[in-house]
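Response to reviewer comment R2.3. The reviewers asked that we include at least one raw input/output pair. We reproduce the pair for histidine kinase here without editing.
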Amino acid sequence: MISLSEGAYEQGYTVFVSSYESHEGTWSYLIGFPYAIGKHMLYYNGEHVGRLSLLFLMGISFILCFVFLFMVCYGFWLTRHLGRIVKGIGDIFLRSYAPLTEKGMFGEIYGALNQMDTEICQSDKVQEDTELNITHDLKTPLSPIKGYAELLMGNPTPDKEAVQEYGGIILKSANHTEKMMNDLKLTYQLDSGAVPYHPQTVRLVRFLKELVIDIVNDPAFTNRRIEFENNIRECAVSLDIGLFRRAVNNLIMNALTHNPPETEVTIRIDSGSEKKALICISDNGTGMSDKEQSELFNRYYRGTNTKEKPEGSGLGLAIESRLSRSMAAILMSRAG
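Raw output as returned:
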């Protein structure tokens, strides 16, 4: 049996021989397998492991110290960047922000702060310009109202013609003030997304023709050349009458006001693809420079191609650009 356990078995079998000790005695056993298998023994030496435990503790201590130092350094690094972010937000509020370098892990945050500061500065400039223009434009119509009211108060018995003349001027200035306030209100409504849109079904060709007739009959444009061309059949469309009239009227009035008297303005209706109606308002006037085109839809911007000061609020085309975007968003949401 010992020879079988220590030597090579002729048929490739494997035999294990060992013993088991208990309180009752020692038991010997022999186990054989009819095929070749492997046998591995694991021995435990307590003395060697005891010597290694010190190195193990030193390694664990070193790793813990390294992790602690890393966390402390990372904390200081993170605190420094968070401090820069908090300070940047405070500087933006105080309008004393200095742009931060957009690099590293916080590069996107620094970029967002830089963009926020740029947009806030632009907003501040727009607000400042708006306040100045509102103050100036309100004083313009209020001055004649106040002046002619003082004339009426200072003359105890004004004649009828003077009363009618002064009253007409006061009424005209009051209407101009009311129009400017309505334009300003509409601008802020469009900026906030509160679009006062009330669609109605109208006959498009007839609607535009009547609008052009009203402008032609205006005494201020009696000698101006306004042409109306229609290349489609009458069609019914759903639109907000007040806003649509305002948009078309503003475009025509700008073409008449900012061009020489001999300029011809043409309003043409054509058919587009997918049963669409195209409205084109054109003129053969002086045109606009690149600078004027870039400023065209900004608030209170007035073109330089006229020597006359228009009595508008300076918000016309700014409203039209916002209105067109709002109407497009409404139509797309309804189509969806």
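The radius of gyration is 44 Å. The longest helix spans residues 46-94. Further pairs are available on request from the corresponding author.
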